[in-house]
Amino acid sequence: MAEPLSLRIDIPPVEPGRAIALYARETPGHAQRVAATVQRLREAAAAHAGRIVLATSLGAEDMVLTDLIARHGLPIAVATLDTGRLHPETRALIDRLQAHYGVAVEVFRPDPAAVDAFEREHGVDAMYRSRELRHACCALRKLAPLERLLAGREAWITGLRREQSAARADVPLQARDAQGRLKLNPLADWSWADVWHHIARHGVPYNPLHDAFMPSIGCAPCTRPIAVGEDFRAGRWWWEHDDTRECGLHVERHPLPTPPGSHHPSPV
Q1: What global pTM score does this model have?
Q2: N or C: which end of the chain has fewer CB atoms below 10 A?
């Protein structure tokens, strides 16, 4: 089968610190949101001792969560997915954060035999040919490894925020996933400015591709820089021409009540 040409992805020069200069702002209530997030993490770590994990995408939000976990010495495992198609900058960040925080990152990868069979049948860049093949690629490279990452866990943590996209506008602070595990989204009420203010203030390591106008970073062939005014996730699977930019890792779940005393002001 002849493989179609990959879509050309032009990444502008990385200007170190550009993301901080563009986005970092201290907004009203920031300190309270940080304190509330730490408290959520602390309570979850105690309630699910030894069975809770941060499933980090290595994006800016997850780097903030990694920083909070490490900074406060919280007993929460940190794990990520290496899909086999990540940008070199993303893979390098794993080593950087381990060195910076002294934490071990668990890395889960897709089954090599399954990847090889898929690519032989459909081609290396099959995701460009149809939505069905793109979803199949995501399932192979992300969903299957995620299930192994979550095996034996009672709770997992993500960096989902309501501001990220229309599809995530109702992200709850906590929910149950399809297997009944607790899924925590402790940054749900944070703004993009909050995320970058924390990164700037605490010297949190981050993916340099954020400095190249890539706020949401996935696999290399499926991520492009965004233009001014575009949605945060407009650079993900952009050729599909719709407003839903998801791979299946995060789908609709049943929200849980916010714990007593955990009501916090919305970000500005």
Answers
A1: 0.87
A2: N
